[in-house]
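Format is chain and fold; as here:
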Amino acid sequence: MALMIPPVKLKWLEHLNSSWITEDSESIATRDGVSVLYSKLLANKEVVLLPQQVLCLKGPQLPDFERESLSSDEQEHYLDALLSSQLALAKMVCSDSPFAAALRKRVLVLQRIFYALSNKYHDKGKVKQQQHSPESNSGSSDLHSVSERPRSSTDALIEMGVRTGLSLLFALLRQSWMMPPPPGPGGGPGGSINLCNDVIHTAIDVVSSLPPLSLANESKIPPMGLDCLAQVTTFLKGVTMPNSGADILGRRLASELLLGLASQRGSLRYLLEWIEMALAAAAVVSTMEQNKVLLSQEGLIGYDCFMNILIQMRRSLGSTADRSQWREPTRTPDGLCSLYEAALCLFEE
């Protein structure tokens, strides 16, 4: 027998955990507070109402009064059937009461808050504890982590291959940027720099093709993956500086890739790190301008790339503001914008 309250489907969104942690849990003591938080669940589609099933109100099949007398076992069977039917009807009536509906909403809201707290401070804390253990206790922490999750030889080989592969890639990119380009077939510059930029451009295409906030839940990313992200981020930060040795396009692509990774990770920390990088690069550009050694198109980022990420962030937060009210950086005729203005826009956001 189906209940009068429609059934629901729960689908918690990982990138909303931080907002649920900040909710006032004491507001669920009142029905108005519960209604507001439950409406938030419905608006974010974390609770989806399912179609109401058809109620089955038909009672037990009882014998006609003209039949012969029933045995004691048959009488007991029909009596149990009547009691079960009445109990089911009583459950349906009670569950359809305003008190039951408010209680059910309160339980769903509490379940969402507890899930956010558990995911933010318990599951994620275990991962961070394994990654950022103090150097003085590195030996004991390594033994503890090994005892919890034994690493197979295959895992060790994969980790070694990934680490050495990243180190080799970074070294080759630095070396190719530092070395003068070989002459091309017609006496012009060769394609070593273009090859390096193609590598970063391919990474940008991969990050752009990912669904929003694909890297937001770090508790589900293995430690090796987080370590690779940290290495890539550190390398790209060095590349974005005007004195890094990379060409102008390479520095611009590195800043765009860094911004894409920061937006996919969905944390204020990584967005602030990108702002810090952009302001540092802008400061170097300002110094070069004073010394009159500035090259053309220095300290810029692609306008469309920056605005696409900014719009994606607004959509992820459910912003309905008019675009005419948004703060946007100044677009150059070449389709670029200043890193300094982009950092200010992102910081204001």
User: Anything to note?
Assistant: The mean pLDDT is 77. Residues 98-131 form the longest helix (34 residues). The chain has twelve helices and four strands.
